[in-house]
Amino acid sequence: MPSSDPAPTLSLTGGPTPQLNAPTVQVALPLPLPQWFDYAPPPGEPPQAGMVGRRLRVPFGSRELVGVVAGIGVVADGGTLRTALDWIDAQPLLGGELWASLQWLARYTHAPLGEVVSTALPAPLRRGEAVPDTHRWGWQLTADGHAQRARLRAGTRPQRLGTLLAEGVVDEDVLDARMEDWRSAARALAKRGVVERIALDHQVPVAQASAGPPPNPEQAAAIAAITRATGFGAYLLDGVTGSGKTEVYLQAIVDCLARGRQALVLVPEIGLTPQTLARFRTRLGIPVHVLHSGLNDNERARVWAAASRGEAQVIVGTRSAIFTPLPNAGLIVVDEEHDGSYKQQDGIRYHARDFALVRAKALDVPVVLGSATPSLESLHNAQAGRYTHLRLKVRAGDARPPRVRVLDVRKRPLRDGLSPEVLQGIAEHLQAGHQVLVFKNRRGYAPVLLCHDCGWTAPCQRCDAPMTVHAGGRRLQCHHCGARQSAPLACPDCGSLALQPQGIGTERLEEHLVDAFADYPVIRIDRGTTSRRDALETQLATLGDRAGILVGTQILAKGHDLPKLTLVVVVGIDEGLFSADFRASEKLAQQLIQVAGRAGRATDPGEVWLQTHHPGHPLLETLVNGGYHAFADAELQQREAAGFPPFAHLALLRAESQQVEHANAMLSAVRGLIPDDAAVERYGPMPAPMPRRAGYQRTQLLLSAPARRPLHGVLDLITPQIHALPQARKVRWSLDVDPTDLY
Ligand code: ADP
Ligand code: ZN
Ligand code: ZN
Questions:
Q1: pLDDT for position 241
Q2: Mean pLDDT value across residues 360-386
Q3: Which helix (H) or strand (E) covers residue 189, if one does?
Q4: Nearest of 643, 717, 646 to residue 683 by alpha carbon
Q5: What is the pTM of this model?
Q6: Is the peptide bond before 18 cis (omega within 30 degrees of 0)?
Q7: What average pLDDT does the structure give for the chain?
Q8: If you measure from the C-alpha of residue 282 to the centroid of ligand 3, how many angstroms do you get, rounded to a whole number?
Q9: Which ligand is nearest the CA of 490, by number?
Q10: Confidence band of 4 (pLDDT split at 50, 70, 90)
């Protein structure tokens, strides 16, 4: 029995369940269906408001599902009502602000509440497990262990762990940050009686908190503004790379902790490095709880539980950490707020930064959005006075801004994409004992395999895209669907053997640089080489302070501080200058500024060279002469003129099917549901920019309105009807509110 609206609370006086007007618990289930489901509660207690937010197990068809009570309702005929199996929680698991915010998120994304809840909960809780206990644990050497430690073989993991523990108990949290895969070493040593695990008290400091550098005047003003806040306020901390934004966060967190409150810090996927965590831990001197995709399910659940009990005082995590319960919140920070990884691109398509604002408002605490390259949305909000705009215009300490040089490579001989000037420049920086970063946003050897005789290029069989050449030309790989094959020996169209990789990827740059600079280490870093979380750190550590070259994709734009890095060479940005996506310029500008910011972060001055065939392109000219803000101002004007976000609000319906007619029929039917007089523009159904991916035909319908209200009015009206469309059964479809990518 579906029910879609929360109904008023009923109070009952016990007795047998009446068959007419039977009271029910309305259960949100993790299903792609918009409604809640009525059940009789598990035997024992009659339905009552205090049950909202408790998990329970219910029968659904022949399955058993874990749901959350979303409301108390009543059905006319209780005879058909199924009875829930049993309670999982004796008390509501979800309540207060988090529960209200999740309901807001379900309404805003027009997604089923049950799916939102299941996205928000760590997997064990989603599966119906009990909230785990949250003792903190540490390791120490046993009485015998101190002596035995000396006999451990040098350089082995057990020996390194022994050294770490030589000075006393070390929190597991700290071990995670200090040593890779310490757990296997700890288990092995525990068996031999060398080390032991002990429970820690929550409040033990992990270290003495250390003071940071005294803030400069800009930092001091920003810290004062944030810490003066009483209640909600949004702060855009707009500071050039290396201006000391992290110092501002740290000081604001120290203040928050001094008031006995919890702080939540969101960082982008690639920004959560052991170096960052170590900095937080040493500065704050208390355990920092970490949430990221590398944790196992139980670890995530423990952090969630510790936060919900108020024991976790500082939580640092990636996108989904925004779902952390904060019963005692004091501050939310979103670092690199412009970063694309904050937007979830499947399932519940939420934006963690935007949701952070909603939560901060509901919690009545300040939220700090930090970036050297703020999103146009946030700049617009700051200009409109909705956010307090805090600027850090100078680099902290002694570091100077890097010098930027645009290299016109038209008519210049390029060798594997590198001009003679660039090779010369690299040589000079290496000879001076420095490090060089060569940035190219294309992994693989080359983007295309081309037949020089007939023009054939190797396509992916399942996508409308060429295969990328890998392994020096021996393998082909599709970066969209993952398909792999070996490269053909001859052209399948004309039989010619003249097959040539066209264009430049990071592998090809690496090959050339290894050749040209045989005396120096060359380290390639891209998604091909860093599938493991700490691989980036490990690879950077192999370089250390030596002169050498890093070559890679935007993974290198963030992360580990590299004080010896003085030259950044950006190779071939030209593809990005002419993309059809209206956000492409913004992304390119952010990438260029971020990667340029890696140069000269310490005392040695830095240089950035942009190699291009379009030195006069307005984006480059504005960026180089005026900086990011000049670019952003110009771009905002263009967005306003063209009616794009942030001056319009978008929703994108996507449908995909092996037969394009099904996808089109579905979206045409959706379009037909929209009232003619709605103040919403509709575009489509039309093919997606990449019409075929992984064998599926993809179509989309874009809705746009100058204000949120009419757009959401239409979505409120049509979303339940979309679920009921017969055409919807034949396709995979999704609704993306505020899409960041229109593909
Ligand atoms: P951002 O987060 O803006 O990139 P960081 O906070 O990481 O900048 O600071 C960049 C570097 O400058 C770090 O090494 C940091 O320790 C140092 N730093 C920050 N603030 C100061 C300051 N007020 N005085 C001296 N050094 C500072
Ligand atoms: Zn050919
Ligand atoms: Zn493909």
A1: 86
A2: 97
A3: helix 182-191
A4: 643
A5: 0.88
A6: no
A7: 88
A8: 46
A9: 2
A10: very low
